[in-house]
Amino acid sequence: MYIEKIKIVESGDYNLSGDRYRIVTDYTNAKWPLVELGEVIDINFGERITKSKNFGSKYPVYGGGGESFRTDNFNREDEYVISRFAMAENCVRFVKGQFWMMDSGGTFSIKEECKNKLIKEFVGKILLSKQSEIFACARGGAQKNINVDHFKKIKIPLPPVETQKEIIEQIEVKQNAIEHAKAIIENLERERRYFSQSLRKLNDIPMVELGKISKIIGGGTPSKENGAYWKNGTVKWLSAKYIGDDQKVKGYDLITEEAVKDTATKIAPKNSTILVSRVSVGKFAFADQDYAINQDLTAIIPNENVEPKYILYASFDLAERISKDAQGVGVRGVTRDYIEKLKIPLPPSEIQKQMVEEMGKEETIIEANKKLIGIMEQKISDVLSEI
C-alpha cells in the first residue's frame, strides 16, 4: 500500500532528515517469485561501545537511529542499517561511508548460496520501501525492539539479476534527484536563518524594540471542565504543539466565541507572527489566518509601517535569542516584557518589501523542490509496484 506523497506535499509536513520519505508497496500481484528474508540474508548486529571510553572524531557511531557520537574506529562501510532496539517508524536507513555499528542496530549480508541470484543493493531498496512492515515486527511497550523471527518472515520479490540491476538504476536516478532537491532546500533554509544577521551588516539601519513597532499579546487556555468553551467550537485555537519546525501552523483545536470573550486567550490576527515563548521555546510560525493562542505563545502584530513577513523572517534570530535566554526549571520561558524589548534592525519600508520579496522567491523554490521530492518518491513507488 503506497502512502500518497501528494498528501505530504499538500500538508507541507516535510522533515528532511535522511529517511522521512518512504513508500509501502503491495506485492500481492507480484510477477516474480516471493522469498522470505530469512532464506536469503543474514543479519549482522553491531558491537556495543561507550562514549566515555571510545570518544573520537573520525567516524560516526550509529545504533538503530541517527548518529550518537563519534569514534576513531569503524566496523561498517556503505551499509543499510536496520534498527534492533528502541525502534522508530523510520527503522531502515542507508549510511554512506565508514561508521561504527552498535549492537542496537544491524546490517545484512546476502547468504553465500544466494549471491548469484540476489544483489544486496536491490534488497536494500526493498527494505527502505517496507519500513512500516518492518516496524510492525517490533515488540514491547514504551521501547519497541525488533522480533528477528518475524522480520525474517517478511517476503520480497526475486526477479532475475538483470531485472534487479535495471530496478536499482531506475531508483538511483530518482534518488539522486531527491538528494539534489534536499540539498537545495537545506541550503536555502540555512540562508533564511541568516536574514537578521545580514541586515546588521547594512549601514545606517536603526535597531528598534519590537514593542515600539508592533503590538505584543499573549494568550491562555480555556478551562477544559467548561463545556461551553469547547463544545461546537468555531474559533481555531493554538498551543505550542501546532507550531511546526517549518514556520507554519500544523493544526488547531476549536473553542467557542464565549471562551474568547471570558478567558485569557486572545486572537492573533492573520499576518501576525506567533512565537513559542514558553516550554518548547525556539519555534515560530506565520498566522495564515486568525487564531486564538494559549499561554505558551506570544503574537507579534506589526504596525502599519512594518511588513508582516519582515517580522516573520526576522524571527529566525528572535527565536534563537528566546531559546538562549529562556529562564526556569522544568518549564522554561521568557516574559512578554522581554519580547517587547527585543531589538531588530528596521530598514525603510521599501527595503523591507524588497527583502521580503527576495525571501518569498526562495520560499517558492523550496516549495517546488518539496513537490519534486514527492513526485520522485511516487515514481520510485511505481517502479517497486511493478516488480
TrEMBL record:
Regions annotated as coiled coil: 171-205
Keyword Disulfide bond: no
Any one GO BP annotation for this protein: methylation
GO molecular function: DNA binding; methyltransferase activity
Domain of life: Bacteria
Type I restriction modification DNA specificity domain residues: 31-190, 207-370
Pfam families registered for this protein in UniProt: Methylase_S
Keywords carried by this UniProt record: Coiled coil, DNA-binding, Methyltransferase, Restriction system, Transferase
Family: Belongs to the type-I restriction system S methylase family.
The protein's name: N-6 DNA methylase
Origin species: Candidatus Roizmanbacteria bacterium GW2011_GWB1_40_7
Organism lineage: Bacteria, Candidatus Roizmaniibacteriota
